[in-house]
Every structure is written in C-alpha cells, then in structure tokens.
Design goal:
heterodimer, A: 2 domains, three-stranded antiparallel sheet, 62% helix, 12% strand, B: 81% helix
Chain lengths: 164, 120
C-alpha cells in the first residue's frame, strides 16, 4: 500500500513538472525525476487520500462524465448568479438548508462539497456525519429531501459510481 | 491570417471572462451580507477566471501547461477558502441579511462549536 501511494505521488509530481517546464530535455527530466522521487519517498508514507482512487476503465469513464456535468452546471449557475446581480431589484432569497449525502469515502465527499461550493448559488458551510449545511442564495425548498434532490443528487449520482 | 483568427477567438474568450469577473465584483458591492458576497465575489468569478486562462491558451500557445495547472489549482483551492471564510463568519456570529428565509445551521452549529472547544 505504501509503495502504491508513493508511486501515485511520484506520477502526479512528474506530470506537474512537465506541465510547468513544457520541455523534454534530458537535464530537465533528470532534475524532475530526482525531486519527485525524494518528495514521494518522504511524504508518501502518510498520504492516504489517494488510496480511494480506483484505476479502472469504468471509473475513468465516469470521471470524464463528471467533469462534463460539472462544467455544464458551472456555466449554468454562473449565468444565473450574473443575472441576479444585474437585476435592479436584486431578487435573492438566501438561507442555510440541510441536505443529506450517502457517500462514505473522504475523497468522494471532498469532491462533492467542493463541486457544490464551486457552482455559484450554493456554498457548503459545514459537514457533520452525513448532513451537509448549505448556504443557498435562492432557497427553493426547506424540506431536506427536496433540497438534497436539487443540490446534491446531480453530482452524487455519478460519484457513487466512481467511489462506490 | 490564420494566426490572427486564433488570436481573435482567444481575445473573445478573454473578453467574456472579464465580463464575468466584472459581474463578480459588482455582486461584491451589491449583495447585502457576508454569505451572499462570498457567493458572488469568490465564485461568480470561477467561470471568469477559467475563460480568461482558456483564452490566453489561444493567444500564447506555449503557456498551455502552466495555464492548465493554474486552472486545476483554482479548482482545488477556491472552494476551500470560500468554505472556511463562510464558516468563520458564522462562528463569530456575523449578522445575516434580514430577508434570510431560514437558518437550519443555527442550533446544530452551537452544539458543534461547543464540542470543538471542549476538545481543545
């Protein structure tokens, strides 16, 4: 398990190194290799977030779908919030609502809450066990189930398939 | 000529991005309380930043790696900072907008904060 973690960190660091340098000269690759190797050895022991990744074709496929859905939601909600800001009457209806999540793994929860926060209009304030507290700029429903349906489900349905 | 068309596409994307950034700034002025300001100020700008960087990829193709890294970095850090700001604002009891419909966090939050201070 430890080796696998260190290897994953090594790969991620190498990809970041290539993206920054944008060159494939031998010296550059060598420096990146040594640096990534040392960092992976030192920090790989304690990092357990990467454990929950599954490297299967289905997981990969659903990750792509997740990105598409996420960007679509991002564009949609950005335009909604932009329209709210532009209207002279400022039609906001804010409040903090509760929603539920069925996800158990830490990584999946982090991705879920970050996605909710990144789509404007909803902002995760806190998480406690399986209750999410969400500040909603335009509250459409006070009921926990309806709110879950409207905010959480669209991301959760796909994350369940990736992280199980 | 081909080159300039690519540049025009890039410049157009940067323009749309800056419109979104401007709307984010406008929201910061117009919104009535902290939580709503976080909504627009830090996040209506996400799409703006993405579009600006994406447009820059067209104008400066040799920067693509760094720009993609920047986008990923913003994707990972932006929500964390807005979440922490919101939670801290709630902790020190920043007053909410008077038209706030509901606050289901209220009682639960007091319990949670008490638990945390006991643990310390």
């Amino acid at each position: 398990m430890k080796i696998k973690n260190q290897f994953a960190i090594f790969i991620v660091l190498m990809i970041i190194w290539f993206l920054i340098n944008n060159s494939f000269k031998l010296e550059v690759i060598a420096v990146g290799f040594v640096l990534s190797f040392v960092i992976a050895i030192i920090f790989g022991k304690r990092t357990d977030v990467l454990n929950e990744f599954k490297f299967t074709p289905t997981a990969f496929f659903y990750t792509l779908i997740y990105l598409l859905v996420f960007f679509w939601e991002l564009i949609k909600s950005n335009i909604q919030v932009a329209l709210i800001v532009l209207k002279p009457s400022l039609p906001i209806n804010p409040g903090i609502v509760k929603t539920r999540t069925i996800l158990k793994s830490k990584m999946a929860r982090m991705i879920l809450t970050n996605s909710i926060t990144l789509t404007p209009g909803t902002l995760t304030v806190d998480i406690e066990k399986d209750i999410l507290y969400i500040h909603w700029i335009n509250v459409e429903s006070l009921d926990i189930d309806v709110a879950t349906e409207k905010i959480v489900k669209k991301f959760e349905n796909i994350l369940v398939k990736i992280y199980g | 000529m081909e080159n300039s068309i690519v540049e025009i596409i890039g410049a157009f994307l940067v323009l749309i991005g800056s419109v979104f950034l401007f709307l984010g700034a406008l929201g910061l002025v117009r919104m009535p309380d902290v939580f709503n300001r976080i909504q627009t100020g830090t996040k209506a700008s996400t799409l703006g930043t993405f579009l600006t960087f994406f447009g820059l990829v067209f104008i400066m193709p040799e920067w693509w790696g760094k720009l993609i890294l920047l986008i990923i970095f913003i994707l990972m850090t932006n929500p964390v900072s807005s979440h922490v700001l919101a939670r801290a604002a709630y902790c020190i009891k920043v007053p909410m907008f008077k038209k706030t419909v509901i606050d289901l966090y209220g009682k639960d939050a007091e319990k949670l904060f008490k638990k945390e201070t006991k643990n310390e």
